[in-house]
Amino acid sequence: MRIAIDAMGGDDAPKVVVEGALQAAKEWNDVEIILVGDSVAIEACMTERPANITIQHTTEVIGADDEPVKAVRRKKDSSMVVAGRLVREKKADAMISAGNTGALMTTGLLIVGRIAGIERPALVYIIPTMDGSGVLALDLGANMDATAEHLLQYAIMGSIYRSKVDGIVKPRVALLNVGTEAQKGNELTKTAYPLLEQAPIHFIGNIESRDVLNAQCDVIVCDGFAGNIMLKSLEGAVSALFSTLKQEFTKTLFTKLAAAVLKPGLKAFRKKMDYTEHGAAPLLGIDGLVLKSHGSSNATAIKNAVRQARIAIQSDLVGAISTEISRGK
């Protein structure tokens, strides 16, 4: 299998991207990694050259501040666009980028293309949970104004993802809402609820954002506006918690001793909440595997993104989604 990686995307590219690719190449010899970007910059970061890594040279880069649609249309030789073209032309089975999120979504839509029958692709994310299993949330920002039919497609795609990639036999799907009662919510959630009840998924009803970290479901469905706010709120709360703990545990000799005792437990908790353990967020609904890594991804996150892509390819995630959507038409 061939996985194209946008080597120039991300805060610390190409260094950490190359490091992560090298780790992945050593771990899985059945994966051919194509590093897409400035060959000179990429080669300068390579401490070795495994046989299953190749470089595709490009001359342009889409920056974090570039306007997505204009950048994708004008920078045709950018690392992100070329990686997307490799997927479209079946020269790669998946692409990964830690670059401009809007540009990657545009690349998915304009370069790779949508699965037939999908109205709006969804950006998904595995939110860490207290039991370590994580919950898949979608959409988290690809579409701010969704319809009930969009939420229905998100639910189906999310359920298939957790089944195919994470091996969950009967994923529990919930609808993000302001209360658990079926009649709660705005017009969007009220309209979507009966559609989800009739869908070929294990729908368990509404869920409130306060229950997300307790792993009461495997998939959370929401529009991009509410989903993005939920995600950023959770990220901010976890960040503030660890920052406060650090301050408190370094105040006195007594608290430092207490921190030493609690260190193993705190490290285990931090690992559960660490986005690098999941690596990347797939853009579901695209007719090819497109995965978005966090802009500040380290080498571990890039390696784990390759792991995710590898599992998705082996399980034919895109084909499974296409088949299910076609069946429902």
From TrEMBL:
<comment type="similarity">
    <text>Belongs to the PlsX family.</text>
</comment>
<protein>
    <recommendedName>
        <fullName>Phosphate acyltransferase</fullName>
        <ecNumber>2.3.1.274</ecNumber>
    </recommendedName>
</protein>
<keyword id="KW-0808">Transferase</keyword>
<keyword id="KW-1208">Phospholipid metabolism</keyword>
<dbReference type="GO" id="GO:0004366">
    <property type="term" value="F:glycerol-3-phosphate O-acyltransferase activity"/>
</dbReference>
<keyword id="KW-0012">Acyltransferase</keyword>
<comment type="function">
    <text>Catalyzes the reversible formation of acyl-phosphate (acyl-PO(4)) from acyl-[acyl-carrier-protein] (acyl-ACP). This enzyme utilizes acyl-ACP as fatty acyl donor, but not acyl-CoA.</text>
</comment>
<keyword id="KW-0963">Cytoplasm</keyword>
<dbReference type="InterPro" id="IPR003664">
    <property type="entry name" value="FA_synthesis"/>
</dbReference>
<comment type="pathway">
    <text>Lipid metabolism; phospholipid metabolism.</text>
</comment>
<dbReference type="InterPro" id="IPR012281">
    <property type="entry name" value="Phospholipid_synth_PlsX-like"/>
</dbReference>
<keyword id="KW-0444">Lipid biosynthesis</keyword>
<dbReference type="Pfam" id="PF02504">
    <property type="entry name" value="FA_synthesis"/>
</dbReference>
<comment type="subunit">
    <text>Homodimer. Probably interacts with PlsY.</text>
</comment>
<keyword id="KW-0594">Phospholipid biosynthesis</keyword>
<keyword id="KW-0443">Lipid metabolism</keyword>
